[in-house]
């Protein structure tokens, strides 16, 4: 029933610094604010916001939000999850975040708070022009999991996610699973990691020129680059990874693959092959430095619902 990814919400100790980064160098727009909370929109997206930032003592993932088509789908999915033993944070109800709507929240198998919603008002948005290097929309979110096989099974069984591709390594086995809810190659991916945490959040740019312009702007601003620019094989999308002020990895991407649901068969890619990580060969090598940065800090929000 899930149609798309809506927004990713982060709690951080220094809200002002985090907001300045996302609305300055990164190119999002402050659409709504409240006490200790900022709702940031992508100029080309109809979603009310794609990132929510909240002032908090601890850095954490507050929430990952997905949309469904109708309020009836919200009720059906909430009832199904409750019957299957999934812990609901709250039952379906009117939402009081920007755009309103109707939704519910629950904990996934590792304790992340997930929101499902429908009937959220569409934001006035615009077409991004040629050469304009700002995010068009939220592309996907990748999470680290200490038990990725169980996490994959949770999202496939309870939420209907479908497998697109898998990354593996000859010594380490399967390492990342790309999951989709629509024709985009992935809206979520699950990476094997030492602890549950955010791996990265990705933002779609208008095209290759805008993607490179945005990458260059961040480099000139002195933002720490982790990996890229390059083009992955799984998903066929470009990538440039940077660290935000609190050590979360953020990605600029474009040209994420669209799959044909009727003919697609998942691939098993060996990422020890350099062309799997980067078809172009332009990015710095995937190594222990990149991996450590992507592990992030252990998430302190597991099984603790955010107050907003």
From TrEMBL:
VOC domain sequence ranges: 4-119, 137-255
Pfam families, per the entry: Glyoxalase (PF00903)
CDD domains on file: BphC5-RrK37_N_like
SUPFAM superfamilies in the cross-refs: Glyoxalase/Bleomycin resistance protein/Dihydroxybiphenyl dioxygenase
Segments crossing the lipid bilayer: none
Coiled-coil residue spans: none
InterPro entries, alphabetized: Glyas_Bleomycin-R_OHBP_Dase, Glyas_Fos-R_dOase_dom, GlyoxalaseI/FosfomycinResist, VOC_core
Name the record gives this protein: Oxidoreductase
Source organism of this protein record: Amycolatopsis vancoresmycina DSM 44592
């Amino acid at each position: 029933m899930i149609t798309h990814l809506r927004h990713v919400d982060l709690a951080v100790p220094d809200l002002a610094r985090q907001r300045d980064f996302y609305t300055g160098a990164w190119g999002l727009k402050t659409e709504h604010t409240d006490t200790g909370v900022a709702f940031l929109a992508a100029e080309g997206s109809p979603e009310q916001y794609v990132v929510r930032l909240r002032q908090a003592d601890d850095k954490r993932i507050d929430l990952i939000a997905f949309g469904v088509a109708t309020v009836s789908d919200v009720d059906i999915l909430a009832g199904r999850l409750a019957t299957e033993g999934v812990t609901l944070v709250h039952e379906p109800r009117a939402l009081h975040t920007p755009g309103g709507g109707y939704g519910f929240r629950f904990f996934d198998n590792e304790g992340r708070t997930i929101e499902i919603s429908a009937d959220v008002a569409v934001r006035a948005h615009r077409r991004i022009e040629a050469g304009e290097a700002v995010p068009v929309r939220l592309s996907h979110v990748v999470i680290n999991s200490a038990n990725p096989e169980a996490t994959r099974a949770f999202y496939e069984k309870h939420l209907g996610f479908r497998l697109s591709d898998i990354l593996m390594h000859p010594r380490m086995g399967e390492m990342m699973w790309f999951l989709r809810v629509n024709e985009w190659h992935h809206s979520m991916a699950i990476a094997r990691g030492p602890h549950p945490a955010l791996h990265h959040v990705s933002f779609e740019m208008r095209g290759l020129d805008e993607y490179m312009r945005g990458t260059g702007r961040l480099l000139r601003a002195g933002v720490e680059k982790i990996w890229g620019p390059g083009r992955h094989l799984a998903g066929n999308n470009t990538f440039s990874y940077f660290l935000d002020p609190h050590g979360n990895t953020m990605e600029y991407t474009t040209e994420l693959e669209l799959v044909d649901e009727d003919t697609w068969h998942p691939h098993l890619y060996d990422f020890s092959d350099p062309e799997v990580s980067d078809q172009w060969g332009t990015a710095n090598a995937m190594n222990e430095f990149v991996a450590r940065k992507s592990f992030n800090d252990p998430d302190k929000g597991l099984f603790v619902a955010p107050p907003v």
